[in-house]
TrEMBL record:
Family: Belongs to the thioesterase PaaI family.
GO MF terms, alphabetically ordered: fatty acyl-CoA hydrolase activity
Keyword terms: Hydrolase, Membrane, Transmembrane, Transmembrane helix
InterPro entries reported in the protein's UniProt record: ACOT13 (IPR039298), HotDog_dom_sf (IPR029069), PAAI_dom (IPR003736), Thioestr_dom (IPR006683)
Species the sequence originates in: Tsukamurella spumae
SUPFAM superfamilies linked: Thioesterase/thiol ester dehydrase-isomerase
Name of the featured protein: PaaI family thioesterase
Keyword flag Hydrolase: yes
PANTHER family: ACYL-COENZYME A THIOESTERASE 13, THIOESTERASE SUPERFAMILY MEMBER-RELATED
Domain Thioesterase, first and last residues per copy: 60-132
Length: 147
């Protein structure tokens, strides 16, 4: 099953409400097990629990998982608190990720916050941490277009 814009409440109060609907309904987000822990104006915290099928070698989580979590974090923070646009759509325009330390046998916590907001485009910073130790795993920036 896929999620389409017509399945979301276009009369939602703001982009945070749209993301509260979208995150649990997106098949890809569900495949990764991403959970929305918190959302506020321009900020979001997500959790990706550890799963052996998301590893690359031994118990080290795959870098592609971290990159996908960055993309999701950028999207959610870009929408968070924004007015709902006429068209419920969005797209990541750019991502830049710096991997700092391996994530070994631990979940991933994504903390994203919007750095700037234009008419349609937002610039977002994401920091990824080991869920239990809070050790910094990666840091990223992204640009996202809403609407």
């Amino acid at each position: 099953m896929t999620v389409s814009p017509d399945q979301l409440d276009a009369d939602a109060a703001d982009g945070s409400e749209i993301m509260k609907q979208f995150v649990p309904a997106s098949p890809f987000v569900a495949l990764l097990g991403v959970q929305l822990e918190d959302i506020a104006d321009g900020a979001a915290t997500l959790l990706v629990p550890y799963r052996p099928d998301l590893t690359t070698v031994g118990t080290m989580m795959h870098g592609g998982l971290i990159a996908a979590a960055v993309d999701i974090g950028v999207m959610v923070a870009a929408w968070a608190g924004r007015p709902v646009p006429d068209k419920l759509r969005g797209v990541t325009a750019s991502l830049s990720i710096n991997f700092i330390a391996p994530l070994v046998e631990d979940g991933l916590r994504v903390r994203a916050h919007r750095l700037s907001t234009g008419r349609k485009t937002s610039h977002v910073r994401c920091d990824m941490f080991a869920a239990t130790s809070d050790a910094l795993v990666a840091s990223a920036t992204g640009t996202y277009q809403v609407g």
